[in-house]
Amino acid sequence: MSGKRLTRRSLLRNALFGSAGLALAACAPKVIKETVVVEKPVEKIVKETVVVKEAVEVEKEVTRVVEKQVKAPEEPITLIIQHPHPSYEKFGETTADPQFEERHPNVKIKREFTAGYVKEFYPKLMTMHVGGVSWDVAELPSWAGTEYVLYLKGVLKELTPFVERDKFDLDVFFPIAIKGSKFRGMALFMLPILVDPGQCVLLYNKDALDEAGVPEPTLDWRYDREFLDVLAKLHEKFGDDKWTWSPQVTGTFGYQAALDAWNTSLLDETARKLLLDEPKGKACMKYYYDLFESGNVPRAGEMPGGAGQMWTGGQLIFETTFPPVVPWRFKAVDESGNKFNYNATLMPKGPEPDGKHGGSANPHYMGMGSNSKHPDMAWEYLKWFTGEELADPLWDAGLVPARVATWEKRVQDAHPIWKMSMELLYSVDLTFVPWNFRGGEVEDALVNGMGRVWLGEVGFEQGLAETAEKIRQILDKPMA
Q1: Which residues of 226-277 form beta strands (DSSP E)?
Q2: 270 touches 435 (CB < 8 A)
Q3: If you ran DSSP here, which 8-state letter would residue 226 be given?
Q4: DSSP H helical segments within 296-438, as ranges?
Q5: In sequence order, what DSSP letters do the residues of 289-319 get, joined into one string?
Q6: Which helix (H) or strand (E) holds 56?
Q7: Kind of pairing between the strands at 107-113 and 77-83
Q8: Do domains 77-195+362-424 and 201-360+434-475 have the same CATH topology?
Q9: Phi/psi at 204 (5° precision)
Q10: Which of 31-40, 103-112, 327-336, 470-479 is predicted with the least confidence, judged by mean pLDDT?
Q11: Backbone CA torsion sign across 35, 38, 43, 48
């Protein structure tokens, strides 16, 4: 065997020096390299090398080589919502706002309610704008085009850039609702919350009709035939014990629905020419004049209460109303001490040959304040309130949304009046909007002028001519 022979002494020597080497190695400084992920707000990314010496004299070299962008904490936001409608106020406070705040923890909703509805609310928005008082979102009921004046005066912000940026689908809404949300068919400055076909529903007391021996109304009834005949029979039967029908020629929606049944409107397509005293418009107004003169329906002020109150109390046989009001009326009767059998259908058609079921689109919108401090979040709220997730809760609250799919789904199991109303939404137009946007002035002239005719204070021809002249004077004025 070649090589040196290993003796016991040499083995011990080797073992001793080997152990000493291991001990010395263990005491030597040790460099450890590792990668550390450090989270920093996106506003500030830092690169650095840090050397840390530990107590055990182990040198640890830490090199930050990975940058991870972390979104900075969002600033707290207070969204100010303006509302003139108690039902929307309640729905917002109890349903829409809490859920929105849950999705956006940095947002708090502040609501400001204005009593007096649009005639008080819209001037308030204008005053706030002039005074530099900011707000973010407002509910905007349609009222003779006054909402367009707010856009013209710079109170409301155009939403087209937001729609294009987010590729927001406007086709989910009824076409008539989108038509009304645009200024002259161009700039979009509102999103539709609700839409219905206006004062198109005829509620009736079935028990009273049975007692008088007259049939229930059908979709074939016409104002100047079946309806006129039934009103005469009901008045003959009940006299002063029950009122027959309270015609709703008392405001924008009532007049528009009445004229629409005669297949005409207050203004022509240019919104510059008055049609009220043209043949169809005049025939429509003459129908109501003759009806009031007959005594078969009460004049304004003759009934001791409003139409809704009188109908639910069983004292009024027919009531004209809006579709969303129908379930409220039915419920009121069911919970009253004077129950009766009831039903609802569309208002009669106008005279032949081209008379139809009348109505007028009744949209409610939401818009953004032009001086909103938080336009992006305001836009998120507009999308939220008009979106799919809140559509069913809105319907359940009696605030029928403007989304087509929701109507198509909910009418299936609802009273037949809802399906009739949905079909009507595709044929009715918006209420009159004068070219100069003086709709409030036109409405006042119409209601006050023809109101004198209905009360018998002035003859039909004179009263119609005076009313038409006042409206034409308003149409000759410059832009509001």
Answers
A1: 243-245
A2: yes
A3: I
A4: 307-312, 326-334, 375-385, 391-396, 404-410, 416-424
A5: HHHHHHTSSPPTTTSSS-HHHHHHTTSEEEE
A6: none
A7: parallel
A8: yes
A9: -145, 150
A10: 31-40
A11: negative
| HSE value, Cβ hemisphere, 13 Å, CA-based, for 283 | 14
Angle of helix 460-475 relative to helix 279-294, nearest 10 degrees? 140
Q: Please write the tens of the pLDDT for every residue from 184-243.
A: 777 999 999 999 999 999 999 999 999 999 999 999 999 999 999 999 999 999 998 999
Q: Which two tokens stand for residue 191?
A: 């999103």
In CATH, what class is 77-195+362-424? alpha beta
Tell me what pLDDT residue 33 has. Answer: 42
Tokens of 218: 């059908």
Q: Are 373 and 134 in contact (CB under 8 A)?
A: yes
Judged on CB neighbours under 10 Å (0-12, 13-18, 19+), 335 is exposed
**pTM for the model:** 0.82
pLDDT digits (tens, 9 = 90+) for 55-86: 333 344 444 443 444 444 578 999 999 999 88
**CATH node for 201-360+434-475:** 3.40.190.10
Is a pLDDT exceeding 60 seen at residue 384? yes
